[in-house]
Each structure stands twice: as C-alpha cells, then as structure tokens.
Design brief:
CATH class of the largest domain: Alpha Beta
CATH superfamily of the largest domain: Glycosidases
Structural class: alpha/beta
Low-confidence stretches: 1-9, 19-34, 52-73
Helix content: 25-40%
Number of domains: 2
CATH architecture of the largest domain: Alpha-Beta Barrel
Number of strands: 13
Mean pLDDT: 84
Oligomer: single chain
Length: about 350
Amino acid sequence: MRRRWLWVIPLIVLCIISVAAAAVLGIKLRDEKMAKGELEAMNRALQSELDRLRKTSVEEIMAENEGKTLGNGEIYYSRENLKEKAREAMSLTELMSMLFSDRAVYYDGKKYVYAPILDSVKKHDYDIDCIVTDEETGIKTYTDASGRTALKGIDVSEWQGYIDWSKVKADGIQFAFIRAGLRGYESGTIYEDTRVRENLEGATANGIPIGMYFYTQAANTREAVEEAEMVLELISGYDVTWPIVLDAELENASTSRTKDLTTQQRTENAIAFCERIEQAGYKAMIYGNMRMLCGEMNVEGIEQYDKWFAQYFYRPWYPYEYGIWQYSCEGKVSGISGDVDLNLAFRDYGSEEG
C-alpha cells in the first residue's frame, strides 16, 4: 500500500513546503512578471491540491524514508533540508526548480508543469554556482574557473523615459538592447517605440554596443516577417552589432489576437522572424521565460536560434543553450531615473563574426 504512494511524495512535499514557505519563511511571491490574478490562481490551485492529499500517509512515509535514495536516483529530502531550500528561493517556482532539477518547471496559469529536459537538445555549459549577487545592489556577476566573465547590460524602451547614456556608460554597462517597437495585441497595428531613435543615437554616441528587440504579437508568419522588416528598416544606418530579438511574451487578455495561438504557430512565427533577420546579415535571437521557451514553443524547433532567457531568480534554471539572462526588472543604473531590466551576457556578441 505504501509503495503505491512513492511516486507522489515529491509533489506532496513540494506543495506542503511551498505553502509553508510562503506563510512562515516569508518568501517573496514574484514569478516572471506574474500578474496578481495569476498568483492568486496559483495559490488556489496549490491549496486545492493540499486539501485532497492524505497528509498522514506522507508523514509516515517521510519518517521511514527520510534521507534515503531510491533506485531511480530520487532522494527524500529531510524537512530541515527542504526548509533551507525554501529560504534560498525567491518564489514557489524557484523552490520547485531546486527540487525537480531534472525538469523545466513553470506555471502555466492553472497548474505547475514539469517538462522533461530533452536529451536531443544541446545544454548550456555555464557553472551557475559562479553567479554572485551583491546583496546591497542586486547586481549579479559571473566569472567561472576558465576565466569566462559575463558582460553587464540593460534593455530599455520608452518606459525608461529620457536616458543620459554618458552616465549609463560610466556606470559600467557593456551592452544595451533597445526596443524597436511593438504590435498591438488587439488592433494588430505596429507601433514604433517613441524613444527608439533617441536611444539608438545616445547609446551609439557613447560607444555602448547595441542590439534591438521587437515585442511581437504576430498571429501568423506573414505578420512575423512584417515585424522583422520593420526593425530592419528602422536600424538602417545604425551600427547594430548585437542580436535582433523577437520578444515573445504571452498576452492573455480576452481581447488578445494571439491568446489562442498553438505551440506550432508560435514556433513557426519565431522561425519566420529569425530567418528574415539572418537573411539580412544580423544575428537573430528569441526572448522568453521558461513557459514560453519550453511550453509555448517547440524546444527542438527553435534550437538553432540563440535565446535570451528571462527569469527573476537567484540563478537561471533554463537547461538548454542560451546567451543572455535577464535577471531583474527592478535594476538601478546611473542615467536612468526609474527601474530598468538587468542582464548578464555569457557571450560577447559584438566581438563575434556573423
């Protein structure tokens, strides 16, 4: 009878510790730009799961098996060990990622998903333990044993207002991504970012290498190519040495043109955008969080393109190859009056050929 419970132990323990961590350990419940409504829905789902699980059985099995390793390599975590991991996590999802490190973990708006990590897709080779966080500023740095050092960068749009790029440069920023524009999620109309030209000129004048990104809401491949064409036309005459990025984010409003896109269609749209960018001689890249890159798109279908991974945790949990990690949306940089996104680039795209 007890053996039949073994497969659910990690899930049960995870639910218990997740809820306890939120209430007792004071975890900050913030997850990849998660809206308040989504967070509340997640908590309701967790509570519902707790209500239907037989806690007494869990306690009996935990008491008998604590610290033991099963034949398949799974480990029963002690309660103290789980509490320690909870203290280290910035969100429930990061806690789950710690416990299920052989899965790509994300919340899909209704439930947690534990996507298998595909053997067929190439993994990154970063030593994530080498990421260091300045507890006062929140700035992260990375230097591994081989001497590879990540570059410090930002991404900006009209939301940052006027930017004093000379101060940005003096603050040690080594690259910047500038928003070219966006497509309206209701109208489908393409809009140019109101400060894109100002930012292009300011960053260029101060010797900051630049890349571009476009916030996509393409409903099909024709629109994805149209978005790529808009960026290419805009940057004509500018020295853009870093990638041109498809910023792929979900828009779940009931009036969104793209809320019901299939995984296949999103993948085809991304490929269409990237192909057009690379035809023009630029490096193409796809930006997304764990849900987008491992759930809303086909992992194998987009493998050939570099990734810019967004996840606001102590460390990134994306298992596959990626070049840039966006780790905060609340950064402080001289020359910018409000918050700005912070990034680490594990590759110097400006020094690469092609």
